[in-house]
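ugh ok fine here u go
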Amino acid sequence: MTDPDQTCVFAGVDGRTDTELPRWFAQQVATDDVTSFAEAIRSLPQATETRVAYRNPYTEEWVSTERFNAVVEPGRLRAQAGDSEPDADPLFHVPTDSYAIINPTDVYAPLEDVLREEAIDGKPLDEVVFGEIRTYRGGGEVHMDLMFDGLSVDLPERDSPITMGITSGYDFFGGHAVYVEGFARDTRCANSIRQLTDRETIKHVGDVGDFRAWWEDRLGQLGLVADDLLAFIEDASDITVAFTDVPFDVTEFYELLEFPSYLAEQAARDARSNATDPFEIDMWTLHSGATYALTHHFRGKEGSSLDQYVRTANDILFNPEATVDQVEQTYEERAEAETDGDGQTGLESQAALAQIEQVSQDVRAKADQFEEREATLRERFAQAEQ
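structure:
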């Protein structure tokens, strides 16, 4: 993943909470510079509006317009006007006049209040929240992971749980509305499991609404997500792909899911190393391999360029039937591209497709339980919001 301009690590909601990073997370981030969530939010660049104008090339005059406003960072305006930083660039974006600036404190100060009032097993969330904030493009784009120590999924035969949380962010360039979605991190390998819930967004247009109620709804879903994530993992652990019975290896499995080769190789290496049997790997381990590759080796940019790969990785866990169907379809398309002039697919390809179809049938036999569980989860989310 493209490195952020800056990463800020936080623990506790403000300076009044005596909170330390969990040991596993402290080892991963390897920094002593830890602040509170409130301080981290208030250190993020703000935005304000100022008028813009265009130059008439015939008269060399600048003509102001009320149809657009420049979204700028006020501190850099001051620096640009002074002698300390005359080259400072305060400009984020020039949107239409319908654009509504939503500053970080507008969004996350209400979250601070909700964290002070909500609890996990009797322990206030403001004392167990921790995570990191990543900024890009001079602080005009922000993504953050908030986790809650103690809200976790405990896997059988493992002493390292999966810690639950949320991912949120925004930008001032018109690309990202304010968003939030369910998130988890595997404490054993630091893999990030993203998009555990549908992404909820608030656009920079008009009345931005009540962020306090918005956060109450989002946090209310986390316990439901934790319970169902465990069930999905247990079910996916019972569905295996015997790579001795299919015409592709583990790396090609990910490539057939349209992962680029460099990610497929990393995902396959991780999946094989964590599998009980490297020749017969279950869907949970294959999913974990994909999240490992995306978390630690993705070369693209955080945001939309990453989202499609995350959805593909999550299908391995939450919708194995769709995953195998995609593998089968991609393989069949490649086989058809290799047909001879008479339109005959080679015997080797025919046998390979038959092998994949057998795997598909095995997965479909267990698919109903995934569909029922997902439908139940969506219904519970809807009830929680109501």
